[in-house]
Amino acid sequence: MDEHTLVLRIPDDLFHRVQQAASESNRPVETMLVESLALLFGDLPDSNGAILASVETLSDEELWAIVHRPLAWAQEVRLKELTARSKHGGLSEVEIAEMNHLIDQVDQYVLLRSHALLLLKQRGHDVEVLA
Predict the structure, then answer these.
(1) Which side of the chain, N or C, has fewer Cβ within a 10 Å radius?
(2) Is residue 5 part of a domain?
(3) Parent domain of 110
(4) Cβ distance 70 to 93 under 8 Å?
(5) What one-character DSSP code corresponds to residue 70?
(6) 2 lies in some domain
(7) Looking at the domain assignment, is residue 1 inside a domain?
(8) How much is the CA Rg of the chain, to the nearest whole Å?
């Protein structure tokens, strides 16, 4: 995976909240920001297992971000398209593999979201309307 360096100016109060959350979870601020961005945009990272293993260390704000993160629109549309076509038996092996990969991503997301909801509930938040 290619990496890029970015100079980012963020408001002082936001920086202090991120810094505090990073300190509480014993992680660098940069790691905290990258993980937060990975949760909010695009595919779930391949290291989803690592995120599940460390989800207890996430702040409440990060857990809420997981809960409210929708699937990427393009992925959702593509999965619906492949599912509809599969009902008529018109998928190639490549498309079947793609569909299975998308289904795995949805399963991982549901598991991650469920874990986040459980932790939020255990921390005293009302999550009943979201379950």
Answers:
(1) N
(2) no
(3) 12-122
(4) no
(5) P
(6) no
(7) no
(8) 17
* Cα four-point dihedral sign 32, 42, 7, 3: positive
> pLDDT (tens digit, 9 = 90+) per residue, 81-91?
999 999 888 88
- Distance separating alpha carbons of residues 126 and 121, to the nearest angstrom: 6
pLDDT in tens, 15-61: 888 888 778 777 788 888 887 777 666 555 555 556 666 788 888 88
Give the integer Cα–Cα distance in Å for 84 and 23: 47
How many distinct structural domains can be found in the chain? 1
Q: What are phi and psi of 33, to 5 degrees?
A: -65, -45
DSSP letter for each residue of 27-68: --HHHHHHHHHHHHSSSPPTTHHHHHHHGGGS-HHHHHHHHH
For residue 118, being part of any structural domain is answered with yes
